Amino acid sequence: MYISNVRIENYRNFKSIDIPLKPYTTVIGENDSGKSNFFEALKLPLSSNDFGYATKMLRVTDFNDGIVRGFWEAFKNDKDSIREKVDNNEDISALLELLPRTVVEVTFINPESVYEMAILNSWLDQDGKSHIYRVRYEFFPKRGIEVICYLIDMLDEDRDSGIEIFPVELYDYKITSTNNGNRVNSRSLSNVKISVIGAERDEFSEGMNRKSNRIVSDMLHKNLSNKDKSSIHQAYNDFFENIEKADSFKQAFSYLEQDGIKNLDEFVKQIKLIPNFPDLKNIFTNITIGYGEDYLFQKGLGTRNFLLLMILFSYYYAQQKSFNVIGVEEPESHLCVNHFNLYLDFMMKSAEKQSSLSQIIVTSHNPKIVNKLKLNNVLIFANDRIVDFSQVDKTLVNYLAKRPNFDTLKLLFTKRIILVEGPTEEMLINALLSRITQIISDVEVYAVGHKGFKRYMDIWLKLNKGNGKVKMGVIRDFDNQPNAKMEHDAYEDENNNIMVRTTSGYTLEDDLVATETNCEILSSFYNIANDPTIVTSYLKDKKAENMLELSMEITDNSLNLKAPQHIKEVVEWIIK
Question: Is the pLDDT of residue 228 over 50?
């Protein structure tokens, strides 16, 4: 069994969105795209298995900012009309429906055993095609009219009140089965859990209340057999008996036995150390993890994070008495290459032999995770929408899959990117960008390694079509291929955030030499004849070596070469 879909309405950055999931899913997206909020949303209908406390009540800041502000401004502008309707007991049901509510709906499919059926059975909800099982979390006003009256009173006090006065204390939450609307009790919810290994892991094994100690304590307490627990209790008793036998213990009460104090012998003999029989979990909290010959807290941040990831993932994955969604945020954080590769391979092998009672969701900014853990498992969070790679043209997905070292994330998420064929164009354009002192450049120049750009533009457009906040420039060689030029130019004709420019001559070197006084400057620099054919041939002879040398001179402002027209147009457009 696994969660196949999560619908979120009015929660943090999500207005209304459906998120499809696989048994294993990789979620990628820019900062603030909602990756962490997605995990927090899942904790609302599911039982949180984290080591901290997770409330299901929300704050006003948990509402989507656009939704709650839109309601608030409309309410303020129409306050007098609303007050009149309330005073006259008129119907305000339409207004009550507009009060902000948060909904998180989770759909399960494919239970594979009788036990899994038993977990989901009361949530069965026929969709006309297959059996699905669905639960719904809703944060709602207990009595909408009370919320309306409260807002009117607060605006009477202060017309300029902001959304911070919104009375979420007049709200409540409920978790129901969508097939009958009945509330789901906590016992049923305890069978479906979410466990998140967060990206902020710096406190692991640091400080007085080390998370590593609590994790190990909980793991031991839950996994030890009753026989082992009994042995530990006996050892705990033996520990106190050994203290009583120590001479130092007896000396602690020697003052009571001194001459002159009568009738105390019998009293002193009755003094014993009796264990207070604390919970075993409290005993285990005194255990500190070591690594090698050192305490774990003495090791570096990267080593501590690596062990936390391995221990927690193993701990959550091994729990087979309930269904468990395991979320891992940015596993690459703080890890060196070796530790990252080890963890990535460990996670990949776990996903391949995955239990039907576990579902893995990983968020990342690292292209290696995307490429290694199968592209058809990738979801992209961007611009209030989801791009599901399993629904993308297989030709495009296979194209990327055949290029495991290609930085897919750089292509998709760079706000201003220029694609070029090879390193010579890349070096030249970066050098030209470095001379522009009026701006701090965020332009990424990326050499794709061959002549075809159409596939890359197709992939980029899946995420960025119609998005005026991002730009892609394409700089290509003519290579005596007029049809290829026309095909590439069509992308610019159909998309206002793409610009395609092609050399006038055969390649970059032809156009560079033909631009203004560049031929004379280059002939002087290389001490060769001032002849376009000779200079062009010289540049092409050792393309990368010559362009590296020229780029260094351009960056140092030692060589005043002019950009060829096709490069100049793209650079000026993309930084504008």
Answer: yes
